[in-house]
Design goal:
Cytochrome p450; 3-stranded antiparallel beta sheet; Cyt_P450
Length: 434
């Protein structure tokens, strides 16, 4: 469509018109240069019955502004902008290394382990605790997330997006997703009650504590967005988004390392030269490790986790490139069109870390690298996610070599599902101590 109609065109998803933005120029022009107009959030039909416009991801207007300000500030206080988040990730990475050592080089499916480590970072900020990798309740929550993300991204999920008004009356994946997420919400609700009982106003320990204090402060304001419903769904948004995205990226990353062992070898070499084997990797190392950093950038580009981003909508009648987009029209910034643009990436459909390296082997910025989107609704966990990817990736490769029962040339990179999100294929891997 882009070749035929250019970078801006309308597609009817069932009965509703949606404006598609293709290429990094059109996306930046809308989301950055006309940030206010394009800052609305559209719906994803299959999860709309759960969120109904509550929580930071799917909220609009003043509700979104209040929740985003609160979430960003509180996550910074509890570890986003401070050194402490780095320490949390380093500690979690060491727990993972211990767990992988116990596998003694046996074949493992890394899905749950990668989910556990990313979930634990967000849990430590939101719930004030981490969970053991064998904790049954924790594993159940992760399984619900994984299954829901797969169903949201399935063919049915796409069909539902087109004909939700009609399909919502019939059985299907939307009912399973609703059940799954309500179970997670019940867990969050129980956690909130425990927080209420132990809350010390002079020393809030995590995001839920901070939210409860804010609720108390604003209880006389009938229009306050700090209510129980937003608390549950805001926590769900952060928990789900903070777990599934980074863990899927890591799953893709290690599958790519199995497929391209020569790239993994170069990363091993750089880790050995810069960090050695006696201390854990730290964020300061990233600047001295351009090749590893380029590999992680390329994993994100190639993994292309949310190909259509999340739907936006315009908050007023908007003039864009000579078109009038009426208020409340949905807009899809097609991130995949930027991440696979041949003008910016020499071999867009192949995994190639050189996309992010200059002639001297230094890391180079690439305008079209926007996996976290851009503008006012840019992913609020970008800082945490980038730190996690670097520290988890390097800590695992510092301690282990990787092996697969499948020959590199036979490793299939085709996603298991590709819709709202891309779900990496499942695979088995050996972590062999170095």
């Amino acid at each position: 469509f882009r070749e035929k109609y250019g970078d801006v065109f309308t597609v009817y998803l069932g009965p509703r018109p949606v404006v598609m933005l293709c290429g990094v120029e059109a996306i930046r022009e809308a989301l950055v240069d006309q940030a206010d107009a394009f800052s609305g959030r559209g719906i994803i039909a299959i999860v709309d019955s759960v969120f109904q416009g509550y929580g930071v991801v799917f909220a609009n207007g003043d509700r979104w502004k209040a929740l985003r300000r609160f979430s960003v500030a509180t996550m910074r206080d509890f570890g986003m902008g401070k050194r402490s988040v780095e320490e949390r990730i380093q500690e979690e990475a060491q727990c993972l290394v211990e767990e992988l050592r116990r596998s003694k080089g046996a074949l493992v499916d890394p899905t749950f382990l990668f989910q556990s480590i990313t979930a634990n970072i967000i849990c430590s900020i939101v719930f004030g605790k981490r969970f053991h990798y064998k904790d049954q309740e924790f594993l159940r929550l992760l399984d619900l997330f994984y299954k829901s993300f797969s169903l949201i991204s399935s063919f049915f999920g796409q069909l539902f997006e087109l004909f939700s008004d009609f399909l919502k009356y019939f059985p299907g994946a939307h009912r399973q997703i609703y059940k799954n997420i309500e179970e997670v919400n019940a867990f969050i609700g129980r956690s909130v009650e425990k927080h209420r009982e132990t809350l010390d106003p002079s020393a809030p320990g995590d995001l839920i504590d901070a939210y409860l204090l804010r609720m108390e402060k604003e209880k006389s304001n009938a229009n306050s967005e700090f209510n129980q419903r937003n608390l549950i769904l805001n926590t769900l948004s952060l928990f789900f988004a903070g777990t599934e995205t980074t863990s899927t990226t890591l799953r893709y990353g290690f599958l790519l390392m199995l497929k391209y062992p020569h790239i993994a070898e170069r990363v091993h070499k750089e880790i050995h030269q810069v960090i050695g084997s006696h201390r854990p990797p730290a964020l300061d190392d990233r600047a001295k490790m351009p090749y590893t950093d380029a590999v992680i950038h390329e994993i994100q580009r190639f993994g292309d986790l949310l190909p259509f981003s999340l739907p936006h909508k315009v908050t007023k009648d908007t003039n864009f490139r000579g078109y009038i987009i009426p208020k409340n029209t949905e807009v899809f910034p097609i991130l995949t069109s930027a991440l696979h643009d041949s003008r910016y990436f020499e071999t867009p459909d192949t995994f190639n870390p050189n996309h992010f390296l200059d002639a001297n082997g230094a890391l180079k910025k690439n305008e079209a690298f926007i996996p976290f989107s851009v503008g006012k609704r840019v992913c609020l966990g970008e800082g945490i996610a980038r730190s996690e990817l670097f520290l988890f990736f390097t800590t695992i490769l510092q301690s282990f070599s990787l092996a697969s029962p499948v020959a590199p040339e036979n490793i299939d990179l085709t996603p298991q599902e590709s819709g709202v999100g891309k779900v990496a294929p499942t695979y088995q891997i050996r972590f062999l101590p170095r």
